[in-house]
Amino acid sequence: xxxxxKTLIVDDEKDSRDxxxxxxxxxxxxxxxxxxxxxxxxxxxxxxxxxxxxxxLDINLPGKDGFWLAQKLRKLKFPIxxxxxxxxxxxxxxxxxxxxxxxxTKPIEAxxxxxxxxxxxxxxxxxxxxxxxxxxxxxxxxxxxxxxxxDGFKLIPHDQIIYCEADGNYTNLLLANGMRQVxxxxxxxxxxxxxxxxxxxxxxxxxxxxxxxxxxxxxAKLIILTDTLQKFSIKLSSSGIKKLKExxx
Length: 249
Hints:
Elements: E1 4-10, H1 14-26, E2 30-37, H2 40-50, E3 54-58, H3 66-75, E4 81-86, H4 92-97, E5 102-105, H5 110-124, H6 127-142, E6 144-149, E7 152-157, E8 161-167, E9 170-175, E10 180-183, H7 187-194, E11 199-203, E12 206-209, E13 213-217, E14 222-226, E15 231-235, H8 238-246
Parallel strand pairs: 1-2, 1-3, 3-4, 4-5
Antiparallel strand pairs: 6-7, 8-9, 8-12, 9-10, 11-12, 13-14, 14-15
Helix pairs in contact: 2-3
């Protein structure tokens, strides 16, 4: 059975997305393109949702750039392979600092792409690559919060939770899809269940996911959390400020 490479393309330019898709379809290798993202935040959400093994990532994106996305994935210890694509050679050194598998310059030549994929598949066959995919599965299986519902339960990926808000004996989860999920547990219990280093207490009533941290206003003691469609301002307590410093943020 031929090897199929589950792939995602992140590029804000339609012509570039179409060109990359055409190159992949004409390649002797088989690709399953599971999605196209126009920006870094959207790319992050699609990666979490679709779980591709290979991402073609443009560096020059509107707003947050490709390096921002690569850094987020690295902070999450998300075992995925990134091939950066850009029109500018000067980004090459920086790209490899983010442990990129390769760096392709636009316009991408079919032969250059072929060589990259051939090398990728060679490493894919290696035991280390198999271990990497196993870690990915384990990561995805573990990083979900089990929430009781009237009919049973649902599993919410940690990466979809922007922050948790205390509400008496309940906790509200503010999610990346714009939804709000009520949990029948106090904040302390939710924090215990999450047990995730990306979450810190901003104050007594808010537990934030630092992967959505966009801005820290030191004088105002305020942090800004954002995703594609939402923006939240949250006050920091003294202990919250200390936690940010401990994380090097």
